[in-house]
């Protein structure tokens, strides 16, 4: 209470400090409040704005109800003893001016900064490692690892297994004499029009003398007329021509898709044993070559394969290594698989050219080969004896026989 009337003092307007309504405030200062349009007092100079009495400035703080002292309601630096603002207080400046300060840049939503790839990878590894220690990770990770392992194994197997499948063991073994060059791109029947592709020598087999009908004696004897004429042209024993021709006719019935011709068998017989005449042997009228033709031991020497004994010497008389036997030079394991009885004597004899020629034809036609296709023809000969020079010699001889038989 001043001068007998109630007055309400009002401090100059400050941003962030609301006016205090103390118990001793009077209405006089409230009327003066709206007149403050200028700048507030400078920090620390003790002046007030227009229309505000010093008493109003002194009593600007709120009165403590306990001891009657005034206190700064914000605690922002007003000196209660002098009624002035302490230096550094936030009540200076124009009351209507906007607050000043450092500008803050607000990033846009699309301007999000991504962490570096290395940091992302490290975080992913850390998260995966932590997850692997949990029960779910311990169950799932081994399953994923096994799935990846099985997939990789299947892919590698699909690529490598076909390339590493063991090639069939040759049916015969001959000494290599050097590599051949300039291989033709086709089989002999494709290069030489004279190689027969139909019935042997254009002959039709007599009825009842070939597979499918009753046979008496040596079936190949039915080809005696044709064999006599052909043997004179080629210089081959008649018995040998009969054996080769009969083997073609049998295979034409049993394996028609093979397309094997007698000239190929005759060429193999010539290269292997000169048609049963190797080592001083003589080809008899029954087709047997005597004395028996036994090849060199397959001991890995001189370019030969190394094959330990498999028949306990039953076929070749050797208890240490296997040997090729007979006029078509079969090794024991191959003969046990592919041997045939072509002369109806109840025996599969590798020293009998009738049996050996038919067995050689069965071997060449294995695996669904079509010997009218050049690639299949060459593969068949190399499967019989995997030597380049050998295959070339068979090709040249078959070609020569084909041409000569057509003249």
From TrEMBL:
Name the record gives this protein: Murein transglycosylase
- Supply the alphabetized keyword list: Membrane, Transmembrane, Transmembrane helix
Q: Which organism is it from?
A: Micromonospora echinofusca
Bias (Basic and acidic residues) occurs at 64-77
Q: Where does the record place the region Disordered?
A: 1-121, 169-217
Transglycosylase SLT domain ranges (all copies): 324-368
Mark the transmembrane ranges: 139-161
Q: Which residues form a coiled coil?
A: none
Q: Where is the composition biased (Low complexity)?
A: 16-54, 80-100
């Amino acid at each position: 209470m001043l001068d007998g009337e109630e007055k309400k003092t009002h401090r100059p307007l400050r941003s962030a400090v609301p006016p205090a309504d103390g118990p001793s405030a009077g209405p006089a200062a409230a009327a003066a409040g709206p007149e403050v349009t200028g700048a507030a007092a400078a920090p620390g100079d003790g002046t007030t704005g227009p229309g505000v009495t010093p008493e109003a400035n002194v009593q600007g703080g709120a009165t403590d109800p306990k001891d009657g002292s005034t206190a700064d309601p914000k605690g922002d630096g007003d000196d209660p003893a002098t009624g002035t603002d302490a230096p550094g207080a936030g009540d200076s400046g124009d009351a209507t001016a906007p607050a000043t300060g450092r500008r803050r840049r607000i990033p846009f939503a699309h301007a999000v900064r991504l962490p570096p790839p290395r940091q992302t990878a490290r975080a992913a590894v850390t998260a995966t490692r932590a997850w692997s220690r949990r029960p779910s990770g311990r169950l799932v990770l081994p399953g994923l690892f096994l799935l990846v392992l099985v997939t990789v194994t299947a892919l590698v197997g699909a690529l490598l297994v076909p390339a590493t499948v063991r090639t069939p063991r040759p049916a015969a073994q001959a000494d290599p004499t050097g590599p051949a060059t300039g291989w033709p791109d086709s089989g002999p029947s494709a290069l030489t029009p004279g190689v027969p592709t139909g019935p042997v020598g254009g002959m039709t087999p007599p009825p009842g003398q070939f597979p499918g009908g009753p046979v008496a004696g040596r079936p190949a004897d039915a080809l005696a007329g044709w064999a006599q004429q052909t043997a004179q042209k080629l210089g081959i024993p008649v018995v040998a021509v009969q054996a080769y021709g009969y083997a073609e006719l049998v295979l034409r019935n049993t394996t028609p898709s093979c397309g094997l011709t007698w000239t190929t068998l005759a060429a193999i017989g010539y290269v292997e044993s000169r048609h049963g005449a190797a080592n001083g042997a003589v080809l008899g009228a029954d087709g047997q070559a005597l004395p028996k033709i036994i090849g060199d031991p397959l001991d890995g020497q001189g370019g030969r394969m190394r094959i330990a004994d498999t028949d306990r010497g039953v076929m070749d008389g050797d208890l240490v290594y296997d040997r090729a036997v007979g006029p078509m030079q079969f090794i024991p394991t191959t003969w046990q698989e592919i041997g045939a009885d072509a002369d109806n004597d109840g025996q599969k004899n590798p020293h009998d050219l009738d049996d050996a020629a038919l067995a050689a034809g069965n071997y060449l036609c294995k695996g669904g080969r079509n010997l009218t296709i050049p690639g299949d023809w060459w593969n068949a000969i190399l499967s019989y004896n995997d030597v380049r020079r050998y295959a070339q010699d068979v090709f040249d001889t078959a070609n020569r026989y084909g041409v000569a038989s057509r003249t």
